[in-house]
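Weekly structure sync, notes
Attendees: PL (lead), two postdocs, one rotation student
Agenda item 3: pending single-chain targets
PL asked that the sequence for the first pending target be pasted directly into the notes so everyone works from the same version. It is reproduced below exactly as submitted, 152 residues in total.
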Amino acid sequence: MRKSHVLSLCMAIAVLLSCVGPATTTAAQGGKSLYQRLGGYDALAAVTDDFITRLATDKTLGRFFVGASDNSKGRIRQLVLDQLCAATGGPCVYIGRDMKTAHKGLGITEEDWNISVKHLLATLTKFKVPEKEQKEVAAAITTLKGDIVEKP
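Predicted structure, written out during the meeting:
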């Protein structure tokens, strides 16, 4: 698996975490942004690290991480974190590619998608993310699936 495949899978993961609609709506209503409710940058970094580790060590998804150098893994981590931070209403800027472009040709399957979602929910549960915020993440996931999963 090429390094670009690893980056693309991780970008898919970041998108799974993105909640632009709910985060901005809450902030516009005078409440805290999702970024703030999740605990800010350090909390998002911890979630990102745990989630990527789960993906990389998964028997099915680990194939996307084969051959990535430590430097490449660090870049992937930062892009995922930046996208998560920006998407949840934080101060970061995401400079990566759009999801459709990033995932075209990777052959990410429905099974890959479902495994990723399970790992995401396990990570959020591990960090005691409240159910309300987990539901916001789940709502965002559904809208992005078509850009990531390829039809057989």
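Discussion points:
- Confidence is low (pLDDT under 50) at residues 1-9, 15-29.
- The two ends are 19 Å apart (CA to CA).
Action: rotation student to compare against the earlier draft before next sync.
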